[in-house]
Amino acid sequence: MKYVITAARDYEETIVEELKKYFFNEVRFKDIYPNFGNIRISGVHPFVYLIDAEINDKPVPQGLFPSITVISDNDQKNPEIDIPTLVEDAEVKSPEISDIKENRDAYIISDKDLDILDSLTQESNSIFAEGINQNRRANLVIEIWSQNMKVKNRLYDLTLLFFIGKKRFTLKSDYDIVIDEKSVSGERSGNYNYDFGKVIYGGMLRMSIDHVIAQYEIDTDLQTLTGVIHTYKEVKDSG
Question: What is the pTM assigned to this prediction?
Answer without folding.
Answer: 0.89
